[in-house]
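I am still getting used to backbone structure tokens and would like to learn alongside you. To get us started, please write out a protein record for me. Start from the sequence, derive the backbone structure tokens from it, and show both lines together. Once you have written the record down, we can walk along the chain together:
***
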Amino acid sequence: MLKDYKKSERPSDEEVEKRLDALRAALSTKQTLIKEHKLPVLVILEGWGAAGKGSVLGKVIRNIDPRFFKVATMGEKTEDDLRKPFLYRHFVKIPEAGKYQFLDGSWMEEVTGEYLSGKLSDNEYQSRMASIRNFERQLTDNGYLVLKFFFHIDKKEQKKRIEKLTEDKNTKWRVSEFDTWQNKHYEKCMDVYEEYLSQTNQSQAPWYIIDAKDKKWAQVQLLDILVNGIDTALSRGAQAVPILQNVFPLRKTPKLSEIPLNKAVPDEEYRKELDRLQKKLARLHNELYRKKVPVIIAYEGWDAAGKGGNIKRITGALDPRGFEVHPIASPEPHEKARHYLWRFWTRLPRTGHIAIFDRTWYGRVMVERLEGFCSENDWQRAYNEINEFEKELTDWGAVVIKFWVQIDKDTQLKRFTDRQNTPEKQWKITDEDWRNREKWDQYEVAVDEMLQKTNTTNAPWYVLESNDKNYARIKALKIVIEEIEKKL
């Protein structure tokens, strides 16, 4: 792309000024439309060091209400970033619906920089490229407008700008060591950037090359694409997108109706096993922390199936400084205004820590599907998006354990009735629980499909037969220990 790039002819100064005025006015009128249509706009500025990204961005955002945009410079990783998955610090920056997010530097800068410095092998680099393509596709599939700009100048122009900036003590700080290195190795960098742009130039999120030799002309180019991109997105509205074929290896899973629920553990045996297993898990937790292995335990299941009690027996073995339990309810307004996986990305553990989710991202293909909180195209796409998400986690090095807590309908009724008739348990039962019970058969169909399509070899499902809570708790502890031991 860069090597074949043909600059368009720059108009006269008068024409540039005229177009700038018109585009600035056009952009300022888009804010109300973006807000009304709840369109999230992500603008990525990449390019050569000293190409003028920052100064152009500063002039562009003057035409937008400051309440409706954020700007982030994706510089060096923080200590927290280093202990999270590669995409974490980028995913958490995505904008709310109806707002802009401008990124001065992005995942391109990070990945190409690490590859050029030798921190990433060829295989690791290609794996990151696949993650980036999936990430950008997920955003656009879920209604985001993603606009990616590469500010292009030649080697001679870059060298001239670097020298000018370093001569002035007030601007010297703007030139990094990498900028200087990049100019000295311009051709090598050009090859890497060329490959990156080509591999991530997707139809739904294409790259736009900006001729950045003249800053006003660069503004015109960027504003023109930005305004037209917004117009196109607004006219297109919400559209169904293709459902991708599953490419993840799957394990065979039985239907819920085929799972026997007569397994039980006597109380005395339960107490002995619980003590033994919790002591073992406590020892493993120390080793997890020392070796910086993250663990994610996800719980789904029927209401009153015993998820809370099961989680309590897991956490009873853990150092409270090294785990967090996330009870997942309906999304808050700021969460609902973003990609549905955003609120889970923001809750991921650091390396060496454990995150336990009491309900999860699978709400997309269960409650959201059955209650009509998303379109059919949304939940059909979600199986693949969730598999991609979990693959990111296991590629990062996390142990991902997913539990479905299974009971039969009669057991649920008995537990509902007990809760309703016991004052200290009444907080556990709601009208919504009773309404969901009426949809048992529909939920069972949805759960069977969920298990079938997301029981991947890297993040398999484990069914906990929970008519007898003792049995389910012991089984969960054994599985957690086994999976951690395998990883260690």
